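Q: What residues go here?
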């Protein structure tokens, strides 16, 4: 029998290629509506859309990024499965290279204060040098997302909806993580009207 208690999830949305739905912005709107229509998921907060340069610089068109807070009775792996299914429905090919241009990218950033699969594994992925991040990807769900604290394109929209959410490993809030970034991490970013 499913535990009927609700958990808070934080989800990131990104796109920088058009899909069959339309532009990157139109794709994000449609993906958000699709997630909203999922059974057992309720979107409780949604950030503005942000235009952000592709990472690394020059690797593709600018992205449109957003974040959402969700409440759900599902488990973290069930949420991730739904996110991957939504990506596939919009034409995402998960076989393309890491950090490449894409029609839709949905990431489960955090699930309450859960650390998964364990603290040592999370710390390993958080400490991975940038050159290895491009070549290696975890085969299991890592929570919180191991790059969350490094990404202005995630933290800026996340600060709009969950500024006081606290990273369970570092103890820092979203606002503290965002203010601790170098200016380069948010260079070229701007909210869309």
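A:
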């Amino acid at each position: 029998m499913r535990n009927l208690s609700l958990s808070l999830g934080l989800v990131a949305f990104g796109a920088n290629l058009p899909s069959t739905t339309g532009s990157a912005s139109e794709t994000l709107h449609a993906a958000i509506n699709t997630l909203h229509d999922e059974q057992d998921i309720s979107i409780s907060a949604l950030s503005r859309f942000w235009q952000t340069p592709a990472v690394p610089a020059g690797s593709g068109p600018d992205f449109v990024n957003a974040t959402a807070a969700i409440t759900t009775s599902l488990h973290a792996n069930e949420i991730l499965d739904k996110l991957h299914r939504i990506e596939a429905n919009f034409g995402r090919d998960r076989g393309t290279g890491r950090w490449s241009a894409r029609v839709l990218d949905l990431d489960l950033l955090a699930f309450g204060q859960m650390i998964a699969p364990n603290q040592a594994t999370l710390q390993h992925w958080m400490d991975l040098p940038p050159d290895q991040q491009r070549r290696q990807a975890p085969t299991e769900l890592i929570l919180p997302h191991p790059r969350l604290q490094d990404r202005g394109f995630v933290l800026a929209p996340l600060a709009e909806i969950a500024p006081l959410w606290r990273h369970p490993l570092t103890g820092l809030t979203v606002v503290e993580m965002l203010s601790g970034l170098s200016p380069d991490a948010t260079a070229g970013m701007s909210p869309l009207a």
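A: Context that may help when evaluating the design: The mean pLDDT is 91. The longest strand covers residues 63-72.
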